[in-house]
Specification:
With 214 residues, the chain is mainly beta. The relative contact order is 0.16. The radius of gyration is 26 Å and the shape is elongated. The chain has one helix and 15 strands; from the N terminus they run H-E-E-E-E-E-E-E-E-E-E-E-E-E-E-E. The protein folds into two domains: 22-123, Sandwich (Immunoglobulin-like), CATH 2.60.40; 129-213, Immunoglobulin-like (Sandwich). The chain has a four-stranded antiparallel β-sheet with strand order 3-2-5-6, with no helix packed on it. Strands 8, 11, 14 and 15 form a four-stranded mixed β-sheet that branches. Strands 10-9-12-13 form a four-stranded antiparallel β-sheet, with no helix packed on it.
């Protein structure tokens, strides 16, 4: 009986103790450009790897004025794929197959009880080029609804619906065609057969469509 009471008392003591606290997790680092300069206001994403839902929203943080970022205490143990983008400066989403640079290695980190934190340096890819302009009816000057698309030499494509004015981001240092199809017709138009833009280069191209082409 006495042994039973001692066992009950020991069990109660163990149950009363709080569970061991998980060490605070953290992924921190710096985002730099191709020249090694820090990039402010870039968005850094941490995408969980493994058996997760395909549509899960990745965690994200912004870099500060000197390119630093940190995910603090908000990440579970496990592996994460990291990527950064900065649309305002013409850096594209590397998760988009059309814009991804196959030469850039995927940056992955793993958090565990023995290694709850990680510090990394992330380099943004090349800046994109930009093409802007208007798709319009040459007779009336009215804007036209159209598909504006890109096609590279390997047959990879990317398109968007525009209502007259358009701005399309272009992978730099890549040969591609600009293809326009006015909505309501099956006739594709290739106003310029080939482009190759430098990083950060921007050109303006209006695309007039005559009534007979519609």
């Amino acid at each position: 009986m006495k042994s039973l009471l001692v066992l009950i008392a020991a069990s109660a003591t163990l149950l009363a103790q709080p569970p061991a606290k998980q060490p605070a997790t953290q992924i921190s680092g710096t985002v730099i450009d191709q020249n090694g300069s820090p990039v402010s206001s870039a968005t850094v994403y941490a995408v969980p790897q493994g058996p997760v839902l395909d549509d899960i929203n990745p965690r994200s943080v912004k870099t500060d004025s000197v390119g630093r970022f940190a995910f603090r205490g908000t990440l579970d143990y496990g592996s994460y794929k990291l990527y950064a983008q900065n649309d305002t400066e013409g850096y594209l989403n590397p998760q988009d197959v059309f814009y991804a640079d196959s030469e850039d290695p995927q940056l992955k980190v793993t958090l565990s009880p023995k290694h709850p934190s990680s510090t990394v340096t992330m380099k943004l890819g090349k800046q994109a080029g930009l093409i802007s302009g208007k798709v319009f009816d040459v007779d009336s000057g009215m804007p036209l609804m159209a598909y504006v698309g890109l096609m590279d030499e390997e047959g990879h494509g990317h398109s968007m619906v525009v209502d007259g004015d358009y701005t399309v981001s272009v992978p730099s240092d890549v040969n591609f065609k600009l293809i326009v199809t006015v909505i309501g017709t099956r006739r594709p138009l290739v106003p310029v057969s080939s482009f190759r833009l430098e990083p950060g280069q921007r050109i303006y191209l209006d695309i007039p469509i005559s009534a007979s082409e519609k």
